[in-house]
Write a structure and sequence with these properties.
Blueprint (H helix, E strand, L loop, with lengths): L32 H8 L17 E7 L4 H5 L6 H5 L4 H4 L4 E2 L6 H10 L3 H4 L5 E3 L6 E3 L9 H4 L5 H7 L3 E6 L7 H6 L4 E4 L3 H13 L4 E7 L1 H9 L4 H18 L6 E6 L5 E2 L7 E3 L4 H4 L2 E7 L2 E6 L4 H12 L3 E5 H6 L9 H4 L5 E5 L4 E3 L5 H4 L3 E2 L5 H4 E2 L2 E4 L1
Parallel strand pairs: 1-7, 1-8, 5-6, 5-7, 10-15
Antiparallel strand pairs: 2-17, 3-4, 8-18, 9-16, 11-12, 12-14, 13-14
Helix pairs in contact: 10-12, 11-12
Amino acid sequence: MAQTETAWDHHPEPLAVASAPVPEYGSGSLADLLPTLAAGLGVPGMSAAISELTPADRNCVFLLDGLGWEQLRAHPEDAPFMTSLLATSRGGTGRPLTAGYPATTATSLASVGTGLPPGAHGLPGYTVRNPDTGELMNQLRWQPWAPPGPWQPYPTVFQLAHKAGVHAAQVSSPTFENTPLTKVALSGGRFLGRLPGEDRVDLAAEQLAAGDRSLVYTYFAEVDGAGHRFGVDSDAWRGQLMYADRLVQRLAEQLPPRSALYVTADHGMIDVPFDEDHRIDFDEDWELSAGVALLGGEGRARHVYAVPGAANDVLTCWREVLGEQFWIASRDEAIAAGWFGPQIDDRVYGRIGDVVAAARDDVLIIASEREPNESAMVGNHGSMTPAEQLVPLLEVRS
């Protein structure tokens, strides 16, 4: 007589590390964008990794924080101008780029500005352990402070372009001018601070025209902010998307001759429901917290730092508890799988968690006590799902 399987007999296999969709480092990631543009401008040492792009004398990158490929495609009525450009993405192929892992602002901006993947530039998460101090460091806010130069020692593409005689400029909020993140990721040439979005794009167009060869960067943060606070597809989020669409069109209509405008983003975003099934609270879960010295990263892309000698036990536990919803890897497994890029600098190795957890499903590992603000966010990002990982590369040429 055949026996009926019960819930106690079910032993699901955890998600295989190799099944995670690794970013297209070296051919179609954010880290490949500026080197490709700089190569077209004749900057020494730069190579055109994104083969679909055609060189232009004047190049402008407009980065819309938080506007992923899937979110843009889902809202044609709120972004009619950018929607009309979808077919131009990635050199007319109509395809997106990948952000890089984790899909979060500090990591992505460093990838954009340095032209390097996270394993090389060394900003592999929202918060990571500083091996020199043993403390968690917030790489977006740069707290607690660490010397920027040793933390990210490579020159930015803007610095290399400026040295090669290209007119390089960044037009952004004045509050970002002297931050450590700007210094390590986006410095080089001129920084021009402007608050209103219209002033920003107008000045970006002026800076494009200021040189026979130009590389200009500008930035808009409010789509991301509305998504975190109110959620993707909220009225507030859609309003910011409408405004961003008008800014892109305004800039496109002012391009000087021989220019290419590229509109991209640092990551996408998903909304996560507020219930125990979708938000797993590390601060109230004795199994997940056992043997853990520090919890880094963010809800959908965690770095887990074990107490000495406990790394294997933590890995086993996290796989047993979360392995159906998260890709759970040891540090060496994540590195070997290429999550952080093809190479890991020695100084970066210890910043990566002993265990790395990347969400596949619509779930979060929150920490309600130690991260109350982040734990309350509606919209979230960080992992390798298409909604978070894919970003546009819309193009307008003059």
